[in-house]
């Protein structure tokens, strides 16, 4: 296998091997589980400080591996955003470019635009940033749709790339152009240099100019269908039927306050995004509007959050079963006896900005591990069962659950929880030590759906318990790398390189 910086850092003869492994472990924790939000125990600022430091130290250890892991399937969109921010805000390396574009391409459009807003907020602006923004925005074949759906966010991105002065010049030239005015040679050169050259893959560069004019606030007149519909909807709501839901709803609130929101839903039901279809089911039912939703397009955590809000139906349960079977196919647990210790205590409610996400992750992981194992026993810490759901409640009596799991005769015990124990604190570690003293050798590992800022990563129920972060089942492969780093760092190198650089082979 090609030798890399990380291969040397984690080699058995490197005296700083433990420190290097700890750096990679902490970054994997952040890449898989960080959300930039407060948790039950930590503030948002504490979580953000942990994220920033983990990205900085990992990039310093091995920038190429860092860039590859940012793009790996198990990394969260949040980690991809921070990864791009770090790569663009620090001196470039020749292989950064492809990684940055790959990371941005893996983001949803709203998250790409959030990334561009973060670049503006942090005043990161260099040739690489400008090239990324202009190529991503002006080279898109969906620019017309974006221009009406994300008008303000696009304006922020473009003004950051061009600067306020040049953006004003472009707006003035485009206003003149749309009104039928004759442009001089200098104005033609400006449009060609700043707009046309980024739209090389589009069949109609003139449409790009019109979209830019609309985003920057030029009066028009316009010829493209969506900008035309946007202008028409200010006087006639039904004329905006071709617009996205959030755009037309904004126009309704501003220009047609007497019209009911249900009318907007009726007009746009056929064009709702995947997220809007699931989130809008309750509103659609109240309005008597049918909104089709394909449940197989949502991950298991999202489906559990929906079930907590709207109730578990047979259709949602079936979709969750299909998701679990798909995830289980990649886990090497067939035929094994597994016991799951699952945290359903009050702390699994999570923070106020994204309530119930931790328990939704626990339930999704439970399903995947159940589907993968030969036999599986569940032992819950707290929680109130509600059919397939479990509502967080009660203290964290983790030791009692461990005793029950040890009695099942399992070959592997997987603990899924945040690592906080309070009934009493420290008893889990005592029970595990006693079991080891008595010769009970069954492996016990912990999967954590929540970061603990005060622990600089993850919080374990016992000091020597192998830990891995799993924000969602799709990240289990990265979790496995995390567990290997805790037991045999050298053996983890091939898996890390495979995840970060699929082209590197043994």
TrEMBL record:
Top-level lineage group: Bacteria
Protein name, as recorded: VWFA domain-containing protein
Classification of source organism: Bacteria, Bacillati, Actinomycetota, Actinomycetes, Kitasatosporales
């Amino acid at each position: 296998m090609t030798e890399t910086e990380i291969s040397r850092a984690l080699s058995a003869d490197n005296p700083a091997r433990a420190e290097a492994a700890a750096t990679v472990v902490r970054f994997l924790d952040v890449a898989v589980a960080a959300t930039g939000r407060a948790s039950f125990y930590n503030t948002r600022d504490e979580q953000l400080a942990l994220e920033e430091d983990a990205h900085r130290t990992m990039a310093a250890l091995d920038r190429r591996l860092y860039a590859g892991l940012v793009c790996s399937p198990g990394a969260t969109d949040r980690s991809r955003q921070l990864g791009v921010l770090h790569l663009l805000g620090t001196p470039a390396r020749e292989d950064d470019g492809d990684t940055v574009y790959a990371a941005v391409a893996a983001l949803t459009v709203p998250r790409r635009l959030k990334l561009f807003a973060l670049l503006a907020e942090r005043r990161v602006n260099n040739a690489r940033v400008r090239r990324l923004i202009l190529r991503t925005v002006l080279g898109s074949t969906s620019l017309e749709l974006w221009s009406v759906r994300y008008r303000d966010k696009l304006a922020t991105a473009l003004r950051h790339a061009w600067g306020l002065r040049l953006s004003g010049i472009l707006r003035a030239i485009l206003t003149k152009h749309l009104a039928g005015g004759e442009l001089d040679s200098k104005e033609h050169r400006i449009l060609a240099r700043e707009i046309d050259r980024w739209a090389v893959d589009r069949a109609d560069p003139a449409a790009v100019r019109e979209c830019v004019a609309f985003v920057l606030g030029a009066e028009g007149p316009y010829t493209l269908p969506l900008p035309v519909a946007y202008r028409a909807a200010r006087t006639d709501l039904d004329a905006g039927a071709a617009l996205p839901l959030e755009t037309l709803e904004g126009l309704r609130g501003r220009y047609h306050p007497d019209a009911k929101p249900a009318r907007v839903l009726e007009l746009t039901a056929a064009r709702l995004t995947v997220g809007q279809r699931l989130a809008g089911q309750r509103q659609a039912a109240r309005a008597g509007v049918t909104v089709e939703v394909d449940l197989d397009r949502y991950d298991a955590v999202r489906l559990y959050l929906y079930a907590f809000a709207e109730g578990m139906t047979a259709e949602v349960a079936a979709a969750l079963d299909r998701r679990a079977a798909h995830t289980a196919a990649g886990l090497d647990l067939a035929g094994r006896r597994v016991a799951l210790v699952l945290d359903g205590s009050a702390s699994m409610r999570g923070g106020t900005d994204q309530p119930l996400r931790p328990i939704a992750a626990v339930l999704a992981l439970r399903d995947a591990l159940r589907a993968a194992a030969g036999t599986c026993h569940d032992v819950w810490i707290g929680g109130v069962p509600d059919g397939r759901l479990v509502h967080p409640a009660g203290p964290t009596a983790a030791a009692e659950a461990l005793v029950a799991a040890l009695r099942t005769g399992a070959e592997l015990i997987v603990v899924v929880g945040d690592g906080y124990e309070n009934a009493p604190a420290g008893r889990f570690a005592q029970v595990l030590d006693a079991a080891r003293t008595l010769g009970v050798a069954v492996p016990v590992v912990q999967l954590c759906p929540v970061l603990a800022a005060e622990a600089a990563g993850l919080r374990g129920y016992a000091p020597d318990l192998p830990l891995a972060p799993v924000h969602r089942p799709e990240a289990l492969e990265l979790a496995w790398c995390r567990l290997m780093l805790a037991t045999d760092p050298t053996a983890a190198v091939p898996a890390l390189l495979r995840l970060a650089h699929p082209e590197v082979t043994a």
